[in-house]
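To assess whether the prediction recovers the assembly geometry, we first specified each molecular entity separately, as shown.
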Amino acid sequence: MDWDALRLSLLLGVLTVAILLPIALFAGHWLATTQRRGRVLIEAMLTLPLVLPPTVIGFYLLVGMGPQSPIGQAWHLLFGDSLVFSFRGILIASVLINLPFAIQPAQRAFEAVGQDLREAAAMCGHSPWQRFWRIELPLARPGVITGAVFAFAHTLGEFGVVLMVGGSIPGETRTLALSIYDRVQAFDNAGAGRMAAILLSISMLAVTLSFLLDGHRRRRHG
Amino acid sequence: MIRLLIRWWALLLVALSLTTPAWAETPPNIAAAADLRFALTEVAAAFQRDTGRTVSLTFGSSGNFFRQIQQGAPFQLFLSADEQYALDLARAGKTQGAGTLYAVGRLALVAPKGSPLRVDERLSGLRAAIARGQITRFAIANPEHAPYGDRAMEALKHARLWDSLSGKLVLGDSVTQAFQFAVSGGAQGGIVAYSLVRDPAFAARTDFALLPASWHRPLLQRMVLIKGASETASRFYAYIQGPTARHILTRYGFALPNARR
Amino acid sequence: MATGAADMADGLSIALRQPGPIALDVDIAVAPGKTLALVGSSGAGKTTVLRAIAGLYRPCQGRVVCNGTTWLDSDRAIDLPAQARRAGFVFQHYALFPHLTALGNVMEAMLHRPRAERPDAAGAMLARVHLEAYADRRPDALSGGQQQRVAIARALARDPDVLLLDEPFSAVDHPTRRALHLLLAEIRASSPVPIILVSHDLEDAARSADEICLLQHGRSVEIGPARALLDDPDSRIARWLSSAGDVAMPQ
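The predicted structure of the complete assembly is given in tokenized form:
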């Protein structure tokens, strides 16, 4: 049982969600309420991580963040180490990959609030911030949480990007998914099986939780 | 609203800074060529018994590690299966000197018991099996970045079997993956590292034959300490050249360079 | 832009012009304490006019002045957002906040008041619409008529300068409709706030309004005292009625 790998996976999942939560809230809200034409373009771009093979994303990240890139060099100047093959590098990759998983459920949830309620809030004298905080967010919360849960579960399962951008460095970037792969290559099927079972349980828990939340929302608000 | 965001992300930054590994406290990361998977694991265990220090071994293809270390991956010691990768790293200024040869590797033809492939050191069994159409999949490591794959290709070309195997080759990402393909039944056999097939766990399941060293350029395995390596990594580097480690390496079929250079 | 109605020191005056996509050519004034009903065929633009007054719709050109405050003046680039206009709006489908109780809904319109005052003030507002016993119920536990009254209480809770009701009679059954007329009469008697309501039913309009304004294709073609216009067979309203055919003439 690779405890380091479990710790890394959980840490990656938690941090990814923590970073994405405010982004999902504001982007989801903006996409649900804006009338601007640019919205369609942004929605399309956000859907890309869903349809692109992870290796494509991994490749562009390697090129964009590697030591030859401007970003990589700036990072090295500031912090002395490299973005690729480090935990921070795979965290960046994870956040980018999970944007649609976090934003789209939030967007649906904010859309479901409906224009009527938003106008009613305005007629109560609410500023846009008051409306967001007092009316839209409480109603959209279950959807936002669903997005967070999905992003967490998806992060745990991420393989291709993490391998390409992070390598499989124990204690740094070898997450549980990568550790399973390593165990198989070492002819340690028992070890691989134990870790696979853990990942499976966590994923099932996440999916069940999100369905429960969805049912709760439907019962509450009709 | 902005203040809330800033506070949230400030909290995150704090949490993030806690994830920075301190090299001095955690076991150093060692990049080792895949053919060393069984041998070096034993050496590391002996190292732990003898010194109380631990290292963290990562196995993969030498070419892959070369690329990663070049781009800043946090390995402290690199054991390559092909000395060219180690020397290139030294030339790029990433290492403490040019390192040292620690072993010379050999190729082995391997087949799972029950395979139609009869193993012998001149590959005549392989030739016959190909002629009879009994070979549909044959495993080697990827020649592009795995030295054992590259030498396997050389050996097959030398035996004039490379062309007849085209379309039937299964390329492993590392030589252990190739070994896995060869042994698990996915292929009828393969050419892999001798050190892997020497592991006693596989004696019952496989047959193997040692290929002549003259059929390919030698597998001169060189290791280098990366700049800034810790005390433990340096000690491990020395330990590999010591008698205990050399004895283990010999058991796994490696030939040894002259002692203590 | 010429003003159709003179700006009153109190009350509401509206002038809207728009060629399309929704045609508008409207001049309306409502004095304090008066109730105006906007009537006309569906698609005539009644709800659009109401939304334009509230600030939920922006016409090409317009002027809306309420109690001396200019809410909209396209010539001078003045356009107060909806939340800055003190207008109470009762939506056709009530738009109650589903996660709040009746009391909570009314309190949402009282954010300008100190927090400690809100529960009592909201309770008083609910009492005004005879719903004090239902203060702790969520909207999904209220009947349609009760939800409407909560919506009215919430609109009044803002202490508005004008009360706007969008088709308040269309979705309710007869007993509720009677109760609504009574409630409106109470509000008209107790408050000087001008009221504009939209209705496609003349009977309802006549019963609760002082004046009726007929909208045809976005144009305010006739405006005047309800009874007088309905009793005059030559009025446009009368002619619109007969041409529409099956709408019953109020007695």
